[in-house]
């Protein structure tokens, strides 16, 4: 399944337990006792309240702290929440607190609703309040460094459990991974070099709140080893030709060795091999060996033909033909 994202929604997970605390007609009823939400997301805390007839409500607000005089501090006046808190009176005697851009510091506090009426004793705080847990989303890769063909497990987790269990989406190098897996575990059963990269994950529907990236390192021996020649245009006898060896490997190739076919001893070492003042006796098939701790394969051969006449000199490989011309002055 090609992973998709839905519109921006609140990622909030509730344990729906209504709390009713009433005394002589006074009370606050919270929609839930506990809420878990992702760091950076938005959360709503709701309640309804009641009071005896003959009172008129003059003030409603939420708080978590008291000031030095033990008076509750309105969240809208709290420096840690200023600009991130809004109140909504959705219906009569119903109230909703919205907190945006959730932070870890918002977590595990008791959010309580308080209302004040026009009567001297007409003040009420709802107990015990609502506990908010703000959770990070993290990605674990086990193991983080593997050889080709091995198995890797990617685990997307949160610091606090989310209920109901959400679906997850996966990213590699910031691009969605095409996968049918929507649970919090993604298994790469047979890793190849193409699987190496930076991975992250997110709860489906909030792909803007991704986990920090974690890197999967795939170890493999040299592959796709090939030889190229420079310059690619016409070369006259007596000029220089440089052969270059290219190879894909992790860790990188630490040793290149050059050979001429049917010649026992190596011709040179290093990623490039230069033949200066080229002569007809330099004709032949050349190839390189690329080596790291996990392998030492040879490239295909590159045939270089040098002629002492005005015939063009050509270079070709056993995989593809390259036209490199070298002329001998008369």
UniProtKB/TrEMBL annotation:
SUPFAM superfamilies: Immunoglobulin. InterPro entries: Ig-like_dom, Ig-like_dom_sf, Ig-like_fold, Ig_CD22, Ig_sub, Ig_sub2, VCAM-1. Residues 1-22 form the signal peptide. It comes from the Eukaryota. Pfam families: Ig_3 (PF13927), Ig_CD22 (PF24518). Residues 128-217, 222-305 form the Ig-like domain. Keywords: Signal. PROSITE patterns: IG_LIKE. Predominantly monomer of isoform CD22-beta. Also found as heterodimer of isoform CD22-beta and a shorter isoform. Interacts with PTPN6/SHP-1, LYN, SYK, PIK3R1/PIK3R2 and PLCG1 upon phosphorylation. Interacts with GRB2, INPP5D and SHC1 upon phosphorylation. May form a complex with INPP5D/SHIP, GRB2 and SHC1. Most highly expressed siglec (sialic acid-binding immunoglobulin-like lectin) on B-cells that plays a role in various aspects of B-cell biology including differentiation, antigen presentation, and trafficking to bone marrow. Binds to alpha 2,6-linked sialic acid residues of surface molecules such as CD22 itself, CD45 and IgM in a cis configuration. Can also bind to ligands on other cells as an adhesion molecule in a trans configuration. This is B-cell receptor CD22. It comes from Umbra pygmaea (Eastern mudminnow).
